[in-house]
Specification:
The structure holds 2 protein chains of 2 kinds.
Chain A lengths: L1 E3 L4 H10 L4 E4 L5 H6 L7 E4 L9 E4 L2 E5 L4 H5 L2 H6 L1 H8 L4 H4 L4 H6 L8 H6 L3 E6 L2 E6 L4 E3 L2 E2 L6 E7 L6 E8 L10 E9 L5 E9 L6 E2 L1 H7 L6 H14 L10 H22 L4
Parallel strand pairs in A: 1-3, 2-3
Antiparallel strand pairs in A: 4-5, 5-10, 6-7, 6-10, 8-9, 11-12, 12-13, 13-14
Helix pairs in contact in A: 9-10, 10-11
Chain B lengths: L3 E7 L2 E7 L5 H8 L18 E4 L2 E4 L12 E3 L12 H8 L9 H14 L5 H7 L10 H17 L1
Parallel strand pairs in B: 1-5
Antiparallel strand pairs in B: 1-2, 3-4, 3-5
Helix pairs in contact in B: 2-5
Classes of the chains: A alpha+beta, B alpha+beta.
Bound molecules: flavin-adenine dinucleotide and FE2/S2 (inorganic) cluster (2 copies).
Organism (chain B): Aestuariispira insulae
GO molecular function (chain B): 2 iron, 2 sulfur cluster binding; metal ion binding; oxidoreductase activity
Pfam family, one (chain B): Fer2
Chain lengths: 286, 158
């Protein structure tokens, strides 16, 4: 295995593209090093992106936030303006692992590892976040929801690196929230995770919404029917019931020791309602 | 093989070493530098026995490559006491008998010190969440939490 830590993303992309063997990007390493140690992967080349200055910052841009792919989740939680604008995205990122893991783990690593239960991804999907990707053919933008292809598999092409994730500007009266169910109170893998983002008009009617669902299918889902169920409502009981039904209907989960299929399907609906209520309140709705 | 030369700072001392690309920071500390304070409990990021700080931030040294340390400030449990004088976190762990086999202790010392530098007046809940990534299989957590709360109070009144 070779280790490289280039200073620009173009150099990093070239290194990855030229490698004929197995190549991996190293961000926080909290997934990659575990996989290395377990012998699950044996890369010929590891490219550390943490020496690339442009990937190590959180920048406000046109009222939105660009989060460099090397930024740790702990740093997101320390960024007051980001927390105020996107509390749900940040709470998903901050649920990842322990204090030790938080200091290294990145949201982009969480996304590119393509785990179905990745905690920061449903919030990003609900937010309609966009990733900027740099590869041998240049730069492109791709919706976060389109990056995972299946468990451990992404739609990124050889040599492509996510440079940053962009959270667009939201209108006034917007809010978001992420909730997960785990059997313990800390340090566990989500059985279900739900991110909800929404925007209200002046009288509290929902005008826009996004719902991301984790751990209930091979990839994190963008549940448009769930978003539609609450758009136009003031999140009354009927809208909440429709939301829950749509979230449950979207599930295609597995049975495992953490939760049965029936349980996951049911909890997806329950958590969607709860997350929507929190997001609604944060948006200023009553 | 392809040894990588790394220049870093450990507990304030300038240190140079050569390591293999696949070696973790924990391997480097223990096997190359003879600093065996950090322990290998799991090597998967779950137990926290290998805790160090990197530029002041708490990290599992088993989840970091030795090659990544260049130019950073590494802090280990060996740097916590000043000569023979124990840090209050260390002294309170002894006073409260908050250790048995001691394998988790270096990680808890490093983690608790990092907490108190960031938050000198944590609630018990905050201490418990902060230390959720430090597993102890013998002592039970109550004594550890009490020791950390007590150390916090001593540091505040000092
Ligand atoms: C003890 C422990 C607890 C954990 N708890 C949780 C949890 O509660 N919830 C959760 O969701 N996860 C959890 N994780 C998993 C892990 O911490 C997260 O998935 C984390 O966000 C990964 O980020 P990273 O920067 O460390 O990624 P890395 O390990 O550096 O990378 C992960 C993958 O993404 C690729 N990659 C990274 N950056 C890029 C990029 N910029 N462009 C292209 N590809 C890239 C890598 O090549 C690799 O395949 C836990 C891990 C540990 C060790
Ligand atoms: S050895 Fe690093 S966390 Fe257990
Ligand atoms: S004292 Fe033995 S693991 Fe904590």
């Amino acid at each position: 295995m070779r280790y490289e830590a280039p200073g620009t993303i173009e150099e990093a992309a070239t290194l990855l593209a030229r490698e004929s063997g197995i190549a991996r990007v190293l961000a926080g390493g909290t997934d990659l090093l575990v996989q290395l140690r377990a012998g699950m992967i044996e890369p010929d080349l590891v490219v550390d992106v943490k020496r690339i200055p442009a990937m190590m910052d959180i920048v406000e841009e046109n009222g939105g936030f660009r989060i460099g792919a090397g930024v740790s989740c702990a740093r997101m939680g320390e960024h007051a303006a980001l927390v105020a604008a996107w509390p749900g995205v940040v709470e998903g990122a901050e649920l990842i692992g322990s204090t030790q893991v938080q200091g290294r783990a990145t949201m982009t690593g969480n996304l590119c590892n393509c785990g179905p239960a990745a905690d920061s991804v449903p919030g990003l999907v609900a937010a309609k976040a966009v990733a900027t990707v740099v590869g041998p053919e240049g730069r492109r933008e791709i919706l976060v929801k389109d990056i995972p292809a299946g468990p451990g598999k992404s739609n990124l092409k050889k040599g492509e690196i996510v440079e940053s994730i962009f959270l667009p500007k939201r209108p006034e009266r917007s809010g978001d929230a992420y909730l997960r169910f785990i059997p313990r109170t800390e340090m566990d893998i989500a059985v279900v995770g739900v991110g909800v983002s929404l925007t209200l008009d002046a009288d509290g009617t929902i005008t826009e919404a996004g719902v991301g669902l984790g751990a209930v299918a091979p990839t994190v889902l963008d549940v448009e029917d769930a978003a539609k169920a609450i758009i136009g409502s003031k999140l009354d009981e009927a809208a909440l019931e429709k939301l829950a039904a749509a979230a449950s209907a979207a599930c295609n989960p597995i049975n495992d020791k953490r939760g049965t299929i029936e349980f996951r399907v049911d909890v997806a609906g329950v958590l969607a309602k709860r997350a929507a209520k929190i997001a609604y309140k944060r948006a200023g709705g009553k | 093989m392809s040894g990588i030369h790394v220049s870093t700072t450990i507990n304030g001392d300038q240190i140079d070493y050569v390591c293999e690309p696949e070696e973790t920071m924990l391997d480097v500390l223990r096997d190359r530098l003879g600093m065996t304070g950090a322990k290998e409990g799991c090597s998967t990021g779950d137990c926290g026995a290998c805790s160090i700080t990197v530029d002041g931030r708490l990290t599992c040294s088993c989840l970091m490559l030795g090659a990544e340390a260049g130019g950073h400030e590494i802090g280990t449990v060996e740097g916590v006491a000043q000569g023979n004088e124990l840090h209050p976190v260390q002294q309170k762990i002894l006073d409260h008998a908050a250790l048995q086999c001691g394998v988790c202790t270096p990680g808890i010392v490093v983690a608790a010190k990092a907490l108190l530098e960031k938050n000198p007046d944590p609630t018990e809940t905050e201490v418990r969440y902060w230390l959720a990534g430090n597993l102890c299989r013998c002592t039970g957590y109550d004594k550890i939490i009490r020791a950390v709360m007590d150390a916090a109070q001593e540091l505040r009144s000092a």
